Amino acid sequence: MWSLFSRAPLATFAFEVGEEVKTYKSETSIWTLNDGKRRSNGAPVSVFVAKVDADTALAEATQNALKQLRTLRHPSILTYVDSLETPTCVYLVTEPIVPLSDHLSALDANERRLDITWGLHVIAKGVDFLGAQCNLVHNNLCASSVFVNAAGEWKLGGVEFMSGVGKPPSGSIQPALAVYKPSDRGVRNLSDSYGFACLVWEIHNGRLHASSDLRKLGNIPRNLSSLFSSLSDKNANSRCSVQQFLERASRPDGFMDNNFVKCNKFLEEIQVADATEKQKFFQNLVDVLGEFPHHFTRNRILPQLLHAFEFGNAGSAVLPPLLKVGSLLPTEEYQQRIVPAVVKLFKSPDRATRVRLLQQMERFAEFLSVGTTNEQIFPQLVPGFTDSNPVIREHTVKCMSLIAGKLNDKHLNSVLLQHLAQVQGKDDQPGIRTNATVCLGKIAGYINPQTRPKVLLSAFSRALRDPFPPSRSAALAGIAATQRYFTINELATKVLPMLCGLTIDPEREVRDNCFKTVGAIVSKLDRLSQHPELVAESESASRQTESVGTSATGLLSWAASSIWSNRSAAAGSANDPTKGRIGEIKKPVVTRV
Q1: For residue range 145-169, what is the model confidence (pLDDT) as tens digits?
Q2: CB 6 within 8 A of CB 13
Q3: What distance in Å separates the CA atoms of residue 67 and residue 273, rounded to the nearest whole number?
């Protein structure tokens, strides 16, 4: 419920001031923090409110805050949006943020550890920017001056007491801030280094009540303890600068030497990285994404991946990490952000891209809509059935079980079944022929019930005559898994006679599978003979169509690629899946079985 003020200036302000963020209660801040939104489009913002009334010192501090945030532009510093001054209040509008304490409390232990390493890196860069390039001293470094935006990036605020080096702070510093100010014995002005040490202490131990507490490390990690001691040294001549802190913390085995920080650093410089560096980064990213906080992968890495895909030259290397990050998204957002990228990749004629897509299809097929599948995905997949490369053909066949339930009648019962029949009867790779039979068994529930028995009988009969034993075993497994789609008449007069010859198959495994399948069918027929009242129910079930995602059965498993991959490798670069274009039909390498 938005709390609107009735004063005329605020009534015409471009932003609405919402509920106060109750968790932001600090003796060190002159502001209260409120949620807010832009009136024109409802975009979220944050609104800092300070009641100045006749307090001249407080008014001076708020004026300084507005001045500094208007002019300072840095990724580490809170982004200024707008402001409004009334006789009694000052309203400072910024990007939407939450207090640092709220953000950290929502993370688990590992996420918190990683988030702190990068967050301190960000704030240290901001403090160094203020001192080294702007000749400014923050004068208010503590946990209540740090906020976190929607992307999970730490932002430095609390700039109301900022001043030039050697100059007094604007306004009267809050009494509670005295604990963060060093005595600064020495010739160098490194008071912000001391304040940064106080921030480090508060992040790990909670509110700092006395300067003497800094001598107790508490929960500060061991690989940060020596740097912390140097930052908090009472003698400014012995105190390390924030820039020195960054350099030392980033050394091997240092506090910031981890994949999370390295990933963030690369993302900051990705625009100047060459194609080889980007390719290597995306390939390695998949292995470490699981370590990162979810909010970071979703709000920071995902936009970078989409940008690299859309405007960069990273190509299909982006796909594995893109899909892994996409798994964190709700379905609607996945379809809006990830599916368009997948569709665009399917239009690429490059073989390496197609192989990556087919290998990863299990991770995104469920998010493809029926329209997208029929209009943009399936037509791009069809040439893969006749591609000269067996790797493309194999994965094309396998992925059909993932999308068959979304295909329209023409694509499923005409185009797909024709191609699977051709693969079954003509492909020179026995493993692919076997997988075509497995695929038919997995998608049987989606096939038109009127033609399904004829299609399955023809397909399994063809596979039962295949000279490759695993292909015959796949047909037997397929019959066992799909027997519910045959009437008792079809089982007794067409399926069983087709199986009898395999009871004397030369291969023991095929014979064993045949006896199991025959036994299952005979058992079913015997049960129906004993209970004729169940026949009608069985006949009705045989003509049903399965819903999406229910047809594939665990009784059927794909043939191992190793059955034929060694022979494919012997063909050399002609069968290299990373070379050539999709749909090239060359004379296949013939292998005899």
Answers
A1: 999 998 899 999 999 999 988 787 7
A2: no
A3: 36
